[in-house]
Amino acid sequence: MKKIxxxxxxxxxVLSYAGGFRVSLQGVKxxxxxxxxxxxxxxxxxxxxxxGMSFIPSKLSVVAGGFGASNKVTFQNFNTLQSAExxxxxxxPFYAAITYRPIEKLTVGLSVTTPFGSTIKxxxxxxxxxxxxxxxxxxxxxxxxxxxxxxxxxSFGASYIYxxxxxxxxxxxxxxxxxxxxxxxxxxxxxxxxGFYFRPDPKLDISIAYRSAIDMKAKSGTATFQFPSxxxxxxxxxxxxxxxxxxxxxxxxxxxxxxxxxKVTPKWQVSADFNYHGWERYSKLTLDFENAxxxxxxxxxxxxxxxxxxxxxxxxxxxTQYAFTDMIYGRLGAYYDEAPYTTDNxxxxxxxxxxxxxxxxVGFKLKQFGxxxxxxxxxxxxxxxxxVNIGLNGQSKATAFYFGLxxxxxxx
Length: 412
What we know:
Membrane topology: Multi-pass membrane protein
Pfam family, one: Toluene_X
CATH superfamily: Outer membrane protein transport protein (OMPP1/FadL/TodX)
Strand order of the largest sheet: 1-3-4-6-7-8-9-12-13-16-17-18-19-21
Largest sheet: 14 strands, antiparallel, barrel
GO molecular function, one term: long-chain fatty acid transporting porin activity
Keywords: Cell outer membrane, Membrane, Signal, Transmembrane, Transmembrane beta strand
Family: Belongs to the OmpP1/FadL family.
CATH architecture: Beta Barrel
Structural class: mainly beta
Oligomer: single chain
CATH class: Mainly Beta
């Protein structure tokens, strides 16, 4: 009873913070070129590599943009052949950044992004309702940063990361004909990033960046139960409102990125990226409840530890841009993203697949102003599901597409 009541819901909510269903949407121009990173035309480079600020051609640069992200997931049981499909609302991540160069060799900046966040909504009575009915996630990264030009062809940059997150989760508790809501609106974490940006030749840009792991600390989470019988509240040591608090440290993984852009001709450039995500850091999750004895620690029944067998993953990206005129730019890209867990660890709260994505977009330059439009279509690969820990056996498929609109302003 202990694990079925709470642990799967809390664990899955944490995984979404960690990026178990990760969509890279932090720059419209970058998305159009497979979300590659070695582009230093404006302040959108800040999220990818703070060192790139030193090569922005304008002393002041401002960018902002937003996306629509739509995805649908299906699951079918191998034995019963019953199927379920999500009804997810469109996600709306955004980004904004500003950079300023007060002196020739020093550039400062600030980036605000929403790198993790989505809503997944399964039918209330589907067979996995004890795992998830609905989950909403939000996250915000605030990154002040600085970049120093070490030489005309190389710069070094570093950033501080302050992260805030929220999870709002509903699931059924069929043993007692009830349900539970898991909520934490004040999870916070701190991290850093740094990188080098090289331009050894006017035709070649090289970006090498690192983003640290972040421990998101949830200190004031609330689990709210609803049961028809008050006796269950007493049994679980809940308060009169059916609530108990919990705390946890939620590990977010580190990321390494190597990118390059080469100008084949004055009008045509090609970009490539390699990303490496340190998912093996996420080996387990420990939750500490205030009163409820729903854990699995023999010496302290309020502590619940869940082992996870995540593996490191990689992403390969390739994009291109062609300047039709001095004002109009066409962009295309494609990338392959590995799932961070195997079939035996698949979970419907944050479904993840080996995924191929094709992208494209158009950019317009109007003197100091820029307008970018982009879209992407994801092709997650079908995968079998055989997670014996949560009793889920079958097959799962997904589809997803993204679109974005961004603006840039380089006044001087």
